[in-house]
Every structure is written in structure tokens, then in C-alpha cells.
């Protein structure tokens, strides 16, 4: 029974020495001296702030993209025991002892290192030789810009890792298609393709470019499958559903999960939540939630409320009034009504309180039982402190003469009667009988007499002059002008008024309110709002010293100084290996010219290369050339500040194209022994030049050793390169 123990247990494994060696070299090149410098390097000052907020569980919004990449950086901080206490206020600031620098930079470095073996495997899966695959991996290994970008707390190396992983997974899946469809490995690589794509998009929206490319290639491959008569309709349907599940459904689910984790981690109120709606703010611990806890949900006649403008631009503000009036005449000579000013005030203040009044009754308190205000009801809004009614009339607004002035009415015994009736329209209602609700309802106030809509002016520089205390303008905008978020308001603070006497009511208005709204806001509602903010909230793009245009990237006419030692000449630059960049551009040009030549010749029924070589050439071009195009050309359409690091994903694909073109030239154009020998010698000389450039610029890639003034000047190979040289 135990006879099997008489023989030793033997495990046989195949080890690809090339792959192991490349992985080790990649790790060494990216991890060596990772803690140097012990100072904030370039955009670490930007991403570090978010890591600290994760550590403290404080909510934030970053308009640069989804949260997955930020969470990975924060994971490094968490594993290193970072408590989030560091002031990320300037590049070059020395890290304090509580900042785990190595841990924070580890995940980007690992991602950058693993890109080296991924490049090797992609070329192998494209059916190129191991020599070509080794060349691709070594070019990635010796690319100075990729090394620099992966050694700091930045996102590009993580993005490129997931992009390459997605490409490799799809190629492995596709190569299993003919002989192992629906096998375990087939499913694994298909599912991994979708997972990697969702991770790439979750790191930066630039990942969408490669995701769309892979979807297009998968669609093309499936189109060819439809023409295969050996596949039944049921089999085709199964293939279609499997691809839909793995490449669309699962990535969408994972994308949602990134936000779910993000929102679960960041449950505390902070400075960034002010741009969110009141309902979102109230779902966070602290901040608005502390103020609104215990508030009544339904707005009733007699309710005391504050009204926040939903747009939140150029800043959040609340409907406000004070005793001061509009000047009789403005600076440009136009006249006003001289009524009490109504503005939008960006701070919480007792003058932000209004009372919802029934026009048919005089009382300013909530009856028992309360009479809720519904969609379509007519109300008057009474300013709590001055007891004057919100009013608008056919008088031009101070800064927007095309719109009506909004005021609190003062009776001057002249022929300008009060026009203070407003119709409540709930924008996000489910039915026409919906009740106006605290925080949750988004409402418009339509003036009954003129059909103008109460609106916070969003004109650039729409702050009132000194007489209006630089507060934001509020106007009456005609409904015919269209809908805008600046016309929408929501009740933020709310209490049921109990005091009919003005003195008692003023005391009531000064006292703090104490409705837990968080349970009413679902994850999907929070996700939708946050996603919309990320897509629409754009910081003003300003010209940066190291910003560049997409045309500058191709020829490496630009660089970025990442760090400068405070006393020595040691410095770190994002600067590419110019030999590799020139080779990549040449390879792309050769590929394009040869492809056009082959297409013209094939049109004339002249076949210069075998059909299998042509298919290999086309498929490799689709992945490598297509990857370069989709990750580069969209930047010509973007109106944003661009930097050299935006080109790195496209560059990676272009580098993969170099060995594709070289192997094709060696196999099909160098046909004699002499030509092959010359070609091989040329390859050795070329690769030696790549290695020489890598070594030459290593001091500004790794930041050490410090270079002398003469050595720094010698590195300025282009006049457009900004190598930092201290004045003596």
C-alpha cells in the first residue's frame, strides 16, 4: 500500500532563464537606491496629499482621474505604517522620519520593473523570435525616462504595467483560441484581460485608449470567427457572451468597485467635500453632517431654511441678504431699484436664513400638523433677520443687465409694487406631487409675475463691487434662456419655526440646528455625483515651466527637472534615451512605408513576403503601432496642460515596434549572407549606442553621483533641454 514511498517524489519545471534574468535586472534597475532622495520629487507633492488624506480617511476629489491609482499609492503608505502626517507643500522638502519613503515608492517601482518581462512575453506571444523579444525587453530596461518615472510615487509606471498586462493577456487568450477554447487557461487569460483593462482605466483615464484598442481588436477577431463555418451558432453565441462578460461586464463592475472602496475608506468630511451637493456632504462624518443631524425632512410653510446653490462654481454659496441697498446709480450710469441687496454668500451666516411663507396667511411659524410644500406650490421667501420678501422686477441686474435684479422689497410708496410670489419646481422629482425635502430636493424658484428663474450669476468676475461686499450676484433669468445648474438650489439647514415674534425668531435663527440624511443616499447616487465631478471639475490650466506640446515629445525636445539637491549639482530629470527615441521614430516610419508598399504591391497581386509573414506583420503593427497611435494622437485634441510623462505609454508601444521592424528587415530584406552579417554588426553597434546613452544619462536618472559644472553642461545635447546649472 505504501509502495509509492519507495521512489522519490520528483517535480519537473521549465524555467525561462531569459525571463528570470530580465525580471531580476528590471528589479535592480528600479529598486536600487529607491529611498534616494529623501525629499519630495516633482508630482510626489501632488499625490502625497491624497495618500495623507487616505491615511486620515478624509474625503477628497481629484479631477485627474479615478481613485484606483491613488489607492495603490496609499496601500504602500499603509504597509509602511504611514500616519499621514506630512505637509506636502513644496518640491524638495525633506521627508520627516515618519514618512516611509521606500514603502511609498515601492509599488510604482515594482510595476516599472515588471514591464521589462512583460515586453519580452508580448513579443513572444506575437510569434517573434526570442532574440527580438529579448531586444524589446532590454530597450524597456534601458529607457531612462521609464526608469525615472517608476522610481517615485507617481502613477505612469502602474498605468503602463496594467496596459502591457492587458495586451499580454489578450494575446495569450487569442493564441489559445483555436485549440483550447473554453479551457481553464483560456478563461483565465480572457478574464485577466478584462481585469487588467479595468485596472488601467482605474489608474488613469489614459488607460481607456488601450482598452478601446483591445475591444476593437477583439471585435475584429470575432467578426472573422463569424465567417468560420466550422463553428455552430450556439458556439458563436457562447464566444460572444464570454467576451462580453470578460471584456465589458467585469471591467464595469470592477470600475464601480474602485469607487465603492474609495468611498468606504474616505468617510470623513474634509476641505474637498464642499464642491459636492449638500446630500453628499451630509453623508460624511463631521462637517455638514454635524450641523444637519436631527433636521426635519419635509419643508413646510413656516420652515426656516438656508438655500445653497447646486452649481458650486466659482465657489459654493448660499442665498443671502443684508440691510444694505443697491446704489441709486451704478458706476456706468444705470439706475437701480434701490431695494435691499440679495446676493450669494460663500460663507455660513445668520443672514442666509429664509422663512417659507404661505402667501394666503400671515403667520411665519409651522402649523401643527405641518403643511408640507409640494412641487408647483406658490410661496413667498421672507428674509429671516430683516423680514423683507424676496422680490424681482423688470429692473436690470447690476452686473448682468440682460437679467432682472433680485432684491428684498422695500415699500418706498412709489409706483413699483411688490412682486414676491415664487413657484417651487422640484427638478429631481419622481412625480408632480413630490414634497420639497431638505438636502435631497433640487428646486428652482420661478417668479410668478415675470417667469424669471432665481439664479446665481456664473459670469466670470461676477462679484459685486465694494458696495456689495464682493459677494456673488444673484439675478432673475428668463426661463426661455434654458436650464443651468446655477438656477437650482437645495435646502441645506432647516428647522421648523416656532416663534411668531421677531425678537424671539432672531434668537431662534442664531441657534444651531440639530435628520440623518446619509441613509437616503445610495452608493450609486454618490458614485454618479462623484464621477460627474471628476469629469467636469477642471482646475484652470496654467502654463507650467516644464509643460510641453505633443509635437515636442516625438523628437524629445523637452525634459522635466524633477529634483535638485539643495547644495550639490545632483539632480533628477525626466529625460529619455535619445538613441531609443530616435530608433522608435525610425521604426514607426519604416513600418508605415513598408506597409504602404506591401499594400500597393498586393493590390497588383504581387506578394513580396509569405502570407504568414504578412499576417504577423499586420498583427504586430495593430498592437504596437496601434497602441502608439491611440495613446499619442488624442493629445492633439486635448485642451489641458501637457507634460512629457503623458507620452510614456505611447512610447512603450513604439519601443515594442523596434524589434518587430528589425526582425522583419533581417528575415525578408537581408537575404544574402553578407547582408545578414552587416545587419548583425549594425545591430550590435546600434544597441551599444543605446547602452552608452543610458550610462551617460544615468546620473540624472538616479540623481547620483553628483556631477560637476562641466559634466552637467556636457549633458545638454539639445539646446531645448533644461539641465539645471547653479550660478557660481
UniProtKB/TrEMBL annotation:
Broadest EC class assigned to this enzyme: transferase
Transmembrane segments: 68-88, 100-120, 126-142, 154-174, 186-203, 208-226, 246-267, 578-600, 612-630, 642-662, 674-694
Protein localization: Endoplasmic reticulum membrane
EC number from the UniProt entry: 2.4.1.109
Main subcellular location: endoplasmic reticulum
Pfam families, A to Z: MIR, PMT, PMT_4TMC
Enzymatic reactions: a di-trans,poly-cis-dolichyl beta-D-mannosyl phosphate + L-threonyl-[protein] = 3-O-(alpha-D-mannosyl)-L-threonyl-[protein] + a di-trans,poly-cis-dolichyl phosphate + H(+); a di-trans,poly-cis-dolichyl beta-D-mannosyl phosphate + L-seryl-[protein] = 3-O-(alpha-D-mannosyl)-L-seryl-[protein] + a di-trans,poly-cis-dolichyl phosphate + H(+)
Pathway: Protein modification; protein glycosylation
Annotated keywords: Endoplasmic reticulum, Glycosyltransferase, Membrane, Repeat, Transferase, Transmembrane, Transmembrane helix
Cellular component aspect of the GO annotation: endoplasmic reticulum membrane
InterPro entries: ArnT-like_N, MIR_dom_sf, MIR_motif, PMT-like, PMT_4TMC
Domain MIR residue range list: 296-359, 370-427
Any one Gene Ontology molecular-function term assigned to this protein's record: dolichyl-phosphate-mannose-protein mannosyltransferase activity
Topology term for the membrane: Multi-pass membrane protein
Similarity comment text for this entry: Belongs to the glycosyltransferase 39 family.
Official protein name in the record: Protein O-mannosyl-transferase 1
Organism of derivation: Oriolus oriolus
The encoding gene: Pomt1
Amino acid at each position: 500500500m505504501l509502495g509509492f514511498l519507495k521512489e522519490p517524489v520528483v517535480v519537473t519545471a521549465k524555467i525561462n532563464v531569459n525571463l528570470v534574468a530580465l525580471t531580476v535586472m528590471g528589479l535592480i534597475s528600479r529598486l536600487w537606491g529607491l529611498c534616494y532622495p529623501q525629499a519630495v520629487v516633482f508630482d510626489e507633492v501632488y499625490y502625497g496629499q491624497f495618500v495623507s488624506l487616505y491615511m486620515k480617511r478624509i474625503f477628497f476629489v481629484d479631477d485627474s482621474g479615478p481613485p484606483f491609482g491613488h489607492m495603490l499609492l496609499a496601500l504602500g503608505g499603509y504597509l509602511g505604517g504611514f500616519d499621514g502626517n506630512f505637509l506636502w507643500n513644496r518640491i524638495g522638502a525633506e521627508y520627516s522620519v515618519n514618512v516611509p519613503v521606500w514603502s511609498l515608492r515601492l509599488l510604482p517601482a515594482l510595476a516599472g520593473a515588471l514591464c521589462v518581462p512583460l515586453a519580452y512575453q508580448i513579443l513572444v506571444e506575437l510569434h517573434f523570435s526570442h532574440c527580438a523579444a529579448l531586444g524589446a525587453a532590454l530597450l524597456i530596461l534601458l529607457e531612462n525616462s521609464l526608469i525615472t518615472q517608476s522610481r517615485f510615487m507617481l502613477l505612469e509606471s502602474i498605468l503602463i504595467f496594467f496596459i502591457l498586462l492587458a495586451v499580454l493577456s489578450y494575446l495569450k487568450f487569442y493564441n489559445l483560441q483555436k485549440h483550447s477554447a473554453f479551457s481553464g487557461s483560456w478563461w483565465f487569460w480572457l478574464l485577466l484581460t478584462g481585469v487588467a483593462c479595468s485596472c488601467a482605466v482605474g489608474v488613469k483615464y489614459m488607460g481607456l485608449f488601450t482598452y478601446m484598442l483591445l475591444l476593437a481588436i477583439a471585435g475584429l477577431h470575432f467578426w472573422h470567427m463569424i465567417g468560420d463555418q466550422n463553428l455552430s451558432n450556439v458556439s458563436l453565441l457562447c464566444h460572444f457572451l464570454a467576451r462580453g462578460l470578460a471584456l465589458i461586464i467585469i471591467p464595469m463592475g470592477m470600475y464601480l468597485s474602485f469607487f465603492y472602496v474609495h468611498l468606504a475608506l474616505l468617510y470623513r468630511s474634509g476641505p474637498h467635500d464642499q464642491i459636492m451637493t449638500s446630500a453628499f456632504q451630509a453623508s460624511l462624518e463631521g462637517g455638514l453632517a454635524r450641523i444637519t443631524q436631527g433636521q426635519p425632512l419635509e419643508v413646510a410653510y413656516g420652515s426656516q431654511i438656508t438655500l445653497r446653490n447646486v452649481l458650486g462654481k466659482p465657489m459654493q454659496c448660499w442665498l443671502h441678504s443684508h440691510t444694505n441697498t443697491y446704489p441709486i446709480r451704478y458706476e456706468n450710469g444705470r439706475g437701480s431699484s434701490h431695494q435691499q441687496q440679495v446676493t450669494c454668500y460663500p460663507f455660513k451666516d445668520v443672514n442666509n436664513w429664509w422663512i417659507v411663507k404661505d402667501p394666503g396667511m400671515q403667520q411665519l411659524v409651522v402649523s401643527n400638523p405641518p403643511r408640507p410644500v409640494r412641487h408647483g406650490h406658490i410661496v413667498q421667501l421672507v428674509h429671516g433677520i430683516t423680514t423683507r420678501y424676496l422680490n424681482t422686477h423688470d429692473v436690470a441686474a447690476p452686473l448682468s443687465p440682460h437679467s432682472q435684479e433680485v432684491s428684498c422689497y422695500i415699500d418706498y410708496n412709489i409706483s413699483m409694487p411688490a412682486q414676491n410670489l415664487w413657484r417651487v419646481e422640484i427638478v429631481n422629482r419622481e412625480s408632480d406631487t413630490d414634497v420639497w425635502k431638505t438636502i435631497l430636493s433640487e428646486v428652482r424658484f420661478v417668479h410668478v409675475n415675470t417667469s424669471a428663474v432665481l439664479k446665481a450669476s456664473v459670469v466670470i468676475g461676477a462679484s459685486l463691487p465694494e458696495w456689495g461686499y464682493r459677494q456673488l450676484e444673484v439675478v432673475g433669468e428668463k426661463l426661455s434662456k434654458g436650464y443651468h445648474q446655477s438656477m437650482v438650489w437645495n435646502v441645506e439647514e432647516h428647522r421648523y419655526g416656532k416663534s411668531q415674534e421677531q425678537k424671539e425668531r432672531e434668537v431662534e435663527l442664531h441657534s444651531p440646528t440639530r435628520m440623518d440624511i446619509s441613509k437616503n443616499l445610495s452608493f450609486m447616487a454618490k458614485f454618479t455625483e462623484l464621477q460627474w465631478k471628476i469629469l467636469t471639475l477642471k482646475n484652470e490650466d496654467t502654463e507650467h515651466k516644464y509643460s510641453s506640446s505633443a509635437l515636442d515629445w516625438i523628437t524629445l525636445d523637452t525634459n522635466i527637472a524633477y529634483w535638485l539637491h539643495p547644495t550639490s549639482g545632483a539632480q533628477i530629470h525626466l529625460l529619455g534615451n535619445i538613441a531609443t527615441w530616435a530608433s522608435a521614430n525610425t521604426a514607426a516610419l519604416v513600418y508605415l512605408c513598408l506597409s504602404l508598399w506591401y499594400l500597393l504591391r498586393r493590390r497588383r497581386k504581387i506578394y513580396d513576403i509569405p502570407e504568414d509573414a504578412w499576417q504577423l506583420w499586420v498583427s504586430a503593427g495593430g498592437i504596437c503601432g496601434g497602441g502608439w497611435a491611440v495613446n499619442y494622437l488624442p493629445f492633439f485634441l486635448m485642451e489641458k496642460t501637457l507634460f512629457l510623462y503623458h507620452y510614456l505609454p505611447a512610447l512603450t508601444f513604439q519601443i515594442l515596434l523596434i524589434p518587430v521592424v528589425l526582425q522583419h528587415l533581417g528575415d525578408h530584406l537581408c537575404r544574402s549572407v553578407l547582408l545578414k552579417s552587416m545587419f548583425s554588426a549594425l545591430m550590435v553597434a546600434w544597441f551599444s549606442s543605446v547602452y552608452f546613452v543610458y550610462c551617460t544619462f544615468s546620473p540624472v536618472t538616479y540623481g547620483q553621483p553628483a556631477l560637476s559644472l562641466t559634466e552637467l553642461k556636457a549633458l545638454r545635447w539639445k539646446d531645448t533641454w533644461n539641465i539645471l546649472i547653479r550660478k557660481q
